Amino acid sequence: MAALALISVAVGSRPVPLGAVLEILAGGEAADSDHHAVMGLRVPRTIAAAVVGAALAVAGALMQSLTRNPLAEPGLLGVSAGSAFAVAMAIAVFGITSAAGYIWFALFGALVATVAVALIGGMGTGRIDPIRLVLAGVALSAVLSGIIGALRLSDPQTFNALQVWEAGMLAGRGLEITLTVLPLILLALLVALPLGTSLNTLAMGDELAASLGVSLVRTRVLAILAITVLAGGAAAIAGPIAFIGLMVPHAARWIAGADQRWVLRLSLVFGPVLMIFADVLARLLVWPGEMPVGLVSALVGAPVLVLLIRRRKALRL
Amino acid sequence: MLTTHHTPTPITSRPVVVGAALAAATAALVVLALGMGDYPLSPAEVLSALVGPLVSDSPDFSSTVVLEWRLPRITAAVVFGAALAVAGALFQTLTRNPLGSPDIIGFSTGAYTGVILATVVFGGAFVGTTGGAILGGLGTALLVYLLAYRKGVQGYRLIIVGIGVTAALHAVNSWILIRAETEVAMSAAIWGAGSLSLTSWSDVLPAVGVVLAALPLVLASVRPMRQLELGDDVASSHGVKVEPTRLMILGVGVLLTALVTATAGPIAFVALAAPQIARRLARSTGIPLTHSALTGAFLLLGADMVAQQALAQPIPVGMVTVILGGAYLCFLLVSDGRRER
């Protein structure tokens, strides 16, 4: 797994112009200050992508398993949007610009959005309908990003500060933000990974799981906390990014089958790979400019959503 | 066997009253909107400014403000709002689902893709952008339909496929815009969020004219649509060819959406909400087209007034409608869930 992650970082850097040269430079001494600057930008960015990818993928895997909903993921269900909105508010209204300051807003936003979407999407039906949940998430995301957009246009001063929170970007997100969020995300990952066994049991049904000695409440609470921290942390770094958390767990399940332990572990590896790939694509598609990576993930991930909804069997997790 | 194929619905007073009230409310809002702006006018002043040129030969300043500056935009809001609402009503009837409106299913975004492509390739001429919008809208409609088709088109699958296609097209739109030369991109991005900032009659009239020209098509599709509402089997036993009719209604709806999108950009929410609000107001079983049109006109004009006045800087009306529309969608989901309980 570690080897794969390493390869993905290398692949992530190579397609970039001068990539081959830079790779050598990164391995040896950075002689040229120009190239060194590029590396200084690119390496933090790749690290950010890896962290965000891992967090989103594991959050998606947890959500899908917990809600038994194959369409669940932080982006589609509006958790990322809620988190990004809270950060945008922290910046625009309270003037907080340090990552250490707004990470708490991000977590709070993620939690509120999770509850709100669950209430809107599942209210009164007893069972939670996957499609209704997605609609609720999409509606919530539309409202929140609309408000951010309106704020951005009404006060161009905040233009640059808010753009990330509208579409999801990795450009210019420095190492400082990632490092601030990283401990929290690592902690959440440590909580999430051991949950695989109890999630496996939960998949057999609540009653059976309870009789097998799995604490339903404890598993759910831990999983929701982990999802909140992972999705919120990812959004604090890169803004709302959809579809990564959707695609990765499905790919993992495709390889590993229904065993949640392996789905979680594989998600942890595939997430960074996909995210770095999307970020490289974001830079290559409109070279020498670049696209917000959130849009690239939509471009790649939307067909997966269409495929999933067409496969009726996939809807019953 | 029955001699008549179509039993006319008895005209009850409620729809008529509601219709008249909607028309009056829209008219009042128009007067209010005409008076709003940097040069505020009272409703009485607006009315005298409207009739001013008829009475005297030399129009005064307020007449110029009202007739030349504000009326074009407001006309656009009313006509476009009505067109979007009718398109929404057609789609919702077709999919038998309150969520089946062009903005949710992604036709608006597709039409916008067409507009951007036309602008980038041909420059921003009216014919090019309108053609691009129609082609883009129809292409997206076809794509979404084909992708959602699996032994028939089921409402919710259509919507999720629409959401996916919308997300992808949204990305494609930004991609083209970022790739395009700055100048072209700017002119295409101006109405990227849906804006009514048309300034003069020469901008508004062609668009309004084309939308009005589509009216006969709408009227032609009303009767078969009512038959379809009764169910496919009933409709075909009444001599309606179900699939061609469905395609025609689809075409008309896409056409209306595309025409509006070509001039004003993708404006969400009106097509989604107006027909449902109209249906609730009129308490009818089907979706009433006239009431929908009036409600749509009222909503878009109101949203545009909010967009211009609510914040320090005017924002595109599309942003207001997205916020309202998302909130409305949440409400729809909640009330839908309550009903199922």
From TrEMBL, chain A:
GO MF term list: transmembrane transporter activity
Origin: domain of life: Bacteria
SUPFAM superfamilies per the UniProt record, alphabetical: ABC transporter involved in vitamin B12 uptake, BtuC (SSF81345)
Keyword Lipid metabolism: no
Topology of this chain in the membrane: Multi-pass membrane protein
Spans through the membrane: 46-63, 75-96, 102-121, 133-154, 174-196, 263-285, 291-309
Family, as annotated: Belongs to the binding-protein-dependent transport system permease family. FecCD subfamily.
Stored InterPro entries: ABC_BtuC-like, ABC_transptr_permease_BtuC
Keywords: Cell membrane, Membrane, Transmembrane, Transmembrane helix, Transport
Swiss-Prot/TrEMBL GO biological process terms: siderophore-iron import into cell
Main location (coarse class): membrane
UniProt organism field: Nesterenkonia cremea
Assigned GO CC terms: plasma membrane
Subcellular location, record wording: Cell membrane
Protein name: ABC transporter permease
Pfam families: FecCD (PF01032)
From TrEMBL, chain B:
Keyword Transcription regulation recorded: no
A GO molecular function held by the record: transmembrane transporter activity
Membrane-topology annotation of the record: Multi-pass membrane protein
Localization: Cell membrane
InterPro entries: ABC_BtuC-like, ABC_transptr_permease_BtuC
Key words, A-Z: Cell membrane, Membrane, Transmembrane, Transmembrane helix, Transport
Pfam family, one: FecCD
GO cellular component terms attached to this protein's record: plasma membrane
GO terms under biological process: siderophore-iron import into cell
Membrane-crossing segments per the record: 16-37, 74-92, 104-126, 132-149, 156-178, 208-226, 246-274, 315-334
Keyword Ligase: no
Family the entry assigns: Belongs to the binding-protein-dependent transport system permease family. FecCD subfamily.
PANTHER family given in the database record: FERRIC ENTEROBACTIN TRANSPORT SYSTEM PERMEASE PROTEIN, FERRIC ENTEROBACTIN TRANSPORT SYSTEM PERMEASE PROTEIN FEPG
Protein's name in the database: Iron-enterobactin transporter permease
